[in-house]
C-alpha cells in the first residue's frame, strides 16, 4: 500500500495537524512548488488512520429516540448545553499532468521560438520552476454569535455540521497555461446565541462568544492536493530542470489527493447575556413584568414554573436622555422562579442561577399579596447567597408586585420599610463586574484568594441594601414609571462603576 504524504509549512517543518504522529517526523521530507509557494511534504500512515477514526466517532453518537418530543417536553434541560460535531471540508484533488506534445510547424515558425513562447505562458516561481494548479482548500467551520438566536435547542436536533470540500483541478491530463486551482470551498458559518461558550468536548475552552458578531474558526478545511508532471523515466531528468513537481514514483500520486478537513466534537454552553436579571419565587410576576416593559412575549400563567427557560427582552433607552435615548437601552432576562433549595438543584434552580452570572443589575420581584412577602424575599436572597455570595454584592432593586390586590396595597408602606432595612448601607465596588464573578461559592473560594472566608460567613443582612424598593402592579400598569426610573438609575450606577473600575485599572478615562 502506498503511504500518503502530509503537508507541512516551510517555516515549521513539522506538520500542522495535531494527530500527526512522531513516527512520521522521521520520514524524509520532499519539497514541491504549489500555488501557495514551496511546501514540504512528509509521507505518513496517518491519513488512513484519521479517516477511520472519524468514522468510528460518528458512529458513537447516540441518536435521540424522539428528539422533537423530548426537546419540547424538557427544553429547560437542553436549552443551554449541547454537544455537536463539526467537520471541515476536505481539500480538492490536484491532477497528474503530462507536458504537451510539441509538434512543430516549421513552415510558419521556428521550433525554438514556439517552444519558448509556450513555456513562457506557464506560471512560474521566482526561481523559474513551473507552478502547477492545486486542488481547492476545503471549507472551514466557523461559529459566530447571532443576536437572532436565544437557545441551543436547535443543536439537539442537528448535531453534525459539515463544510463543503474544495474543488478538484479540472484538467484533461495535459499541462496548459489555462489550468486553474480548484475552487476554495466557502466556510460553513454556524450561528449560535450570543453568550455561547465554546469548548472542545471534555477539553479546553476555545472561545466565549459574548458579543454579537464574535466568531471562531473551530475546524480548518483540508489543504488541496498538488498537481504533478508525469514523464517517462528517461525524460524525467530534463523535466526536473524545469519543475520540482515531477512525479518520481507511483507513491507520489497520493500528493495529488486533497487533505482531510478537521473534525472536532464541541461542547456549547450558553450563558445568558443580559444587563438586568429578574429574580423571585415562582408566580411573583417576573414574566408579566418582562412583557410589560419590553416587546417580549413570555408564557404567563397562574401556576408556578411557567417559565422554563430564560426569556429575554429589550428595554428602550431613557427618553429623558433626548438624542442619547438609545445609549441606555438594556436587555432584561426573566429567569425561572427560584425556590428554597434552588442552589442545591431543587425546582429548576441551579441551572438558572448560573444565568445571573453576566447580569449587572438584579430586580427582585416579590408578590406583595403573598402570605409573607418579607420571608419570600429573604428566601430568594438566601438562595443567591448559597449559590454565589457575589450575587448579593451586585446593585439591585426590589419590586413589590400585585399592589392592585387589597391585601398587598394595605401593607405596602410597611413592606417597603421592612425590605429597605434588610442589609447594610455601605456598598463596595468589589465584584460589580459580571465577568469577574465566579460560577459558585466553591469556585470563588479557590479563585479569589484573600477574604473569601469572610464572605462565606456573611449573612444576608451584611450585604448591601437595595438601591430602591418600589410598589407596582405590572399586570394593571400601576407604578410602572417609578419602577422604570429606578431600573434606569440602577443601570446608570452599574455603568458608572464599570467606568470607574476601568479608569482604576487602565489609568485612562474611557471614551
Ligand atoms: N393581580 C395581579 N396578578 C399578577 C400581577 N402580575 C402578575 N400577575 C399574575 O401572577 C401570575 C404569575 O405571573 P407570571 O408573570 O407568570 O409569574 P412568574 O414569576 O414569571 O412565574 P414563574 O414562571 O413560575 O417563575 C399570572 O397569573 C399573572 O397574571 C399583578 O400585578 N397583579
TrEMBL record:
It comes from the Eukaryota. PROSITE patterns: G_OBG, GTP1_OBG, OBG. Transmembrane segments: none annotated. Residues 274-464 form the OBG-type G domain. The keyword GTP-binding applies. Keywords: GTP-binding, Nucleotide-binding. One of its GO terms (cellular component) is mitochondrion. This is Probable GTP-binding protein OBGC2. It comes from Ananas comosus. The gene is LOC109715575.
